[in-house]
Amino acid sequence: MPLITGHRIEEAHFYSKLVTRGNFKSFAKSLQGSAIESVSRIGKHIVVKLDRGSLHLHLGMTGKLLWNVEPGNYTRAIFRLDNGTLIYDDIRQFGRVSYSDKLPSAIGRLGPDALAVNFDSFFLSLHKHHCSLKSLLLNQRFVSGIGNIYADEILFAAGIHPKAKASRLLKRRALKLYEEMGRILQTAIEHRGSSISDYVDSNGVKGGFQLLHRVYGKAGGDCERCGAVIKRIVIAQRGTHYCPRCQRP
DNA sequence: CAGATCACCTGCTTGC
DNA sequence: TGCAAGCAGGTGATCT
C-alpha cells in the first residue's frame, strides 16, 4: 500500500469496540495529524509506521481495507488522509485495528515469516514440535502468515498427510514441504489471494487463487492428481481437506 | 510446558 | 415459507 506512504492522517474514526479492543477515542486523537512513514507486513499483521507511534491492523477473517469508497454497514474504521480515504470494513469483526507507540505483543511472539524463513531453521523448529503438521502450519509462532486454506493446499502439494507428526518428518519430505510452502504462498499472492465469500483487495478486485484450490473446499470431489475422493476431517477445530491416496499417513 | 479445546462474531446454508 | 441450528475461521484464553 505505498499509496498512503508519505501522506498525513487528517482524522480517524472508529466504530467497533470489538475491533479496536481499546479506547478508540484516544486512538483517534493520537492519529489525528500524524504522518505515514512506511507500511509493512509481518506475518498476517500490517504495521503502518507513523511519525509518532504506529497503527496495527490484522484483517482476521473478513477484514478489508478499501480505498476511496463510501462507508457501509460493516465499516469499523475510517482514516481520512490528505490524498484519499482508507476504510476498514469487517463483517465478523475478527480483525483488529489499534494504535500504540510500541508493537503489539502478538507481533513479538510471531515466528519467522513463511516467505522469509530459511530451510535450516525451518527444519530445526519442525523437530521441536510433536503436534500434527496441519496444526503446526497454523501456529503463527512456528512460521507466520499461513491460514487454513493455505495449510491444506501446501500439505496437498507436498503430498503429506495433515495428521503427520511434525517431529518425525524426514529431511527430504521437510524440504518438499518447505518448497511448496513458498511456492503456494507466492502463487496465491500473485493471484491476490482467495476470494471465498466476498474478499476483495483495496481496489475492490477479487482474488483469483480460489480457482486454483486443489483440496480446500473440494471434499467429496475427485483428486485431480489421482482421482481418489477428497476427504474432510477436523484438526485443531479447523476444516481440513486432503487426498487420502496422495497424502498417506 | 506443549498441545488441545473453547469462545468470540455474523452471514450463509441446511434441514425440518 | 419460516425459523432454528450448524458452519466458516484467526487468535487469545483456558483447560489437560
Topology:
Layout: E1 9-14, H1 17-20, H2 24-31, E2 36-42, E3 45-50, E4 54-58, E5 63-67, E6 75-81, E7 84-90, E8 96-100, H3 105-108, H4 119-126, H5 133-138, H6 148-158, H7 171-190, E9 231-235, E10 238-242
The chain binds a DNA duplex (16 and 16 nucleotides) through residues 18, 44, 58-62, 74, 90-96, 106, 129-131, 135, 138-140, 147-149, 196-198, 236-239.
Question: What's this, in brief?
Answer:
The protein has helices spanning 17-20, 24-31, 105-108, 119-126, 133-138, 148-158, 171-190; strands at 9-14, 36-42, 45-50, 54-58, 63-67, 75-81, 84-90, 96-100, 231-235, 238-242. It is α+β, with helices and mostly antiparallel strands.
Per CATH, the class of the largest domain reads Mainly Alpha
User: How much strand?
Assistant: 15-25%
Largest sheet: 4 strands, antiparallel
At CATH level 3, the topology of the largest domain is Helicase, Ruva Protein, domain 3
* Uncertain stretches of 5 or more adjacent residues: none
What is the quaternary state of this protein? single chain
What share of residues is helical?
10-25%
What's the overall geometry? Answer: elongated
Overall mean pLDDT stands at 90
The number of distinct β-strands equals 10
**By helix and strand content, what is the structural category?**
alpha+beta
Instruction: Kindly provide the radius of gyration, computed on alpha-carbon positions and rounded to a whole number of angstroms.
Output: 20 Å
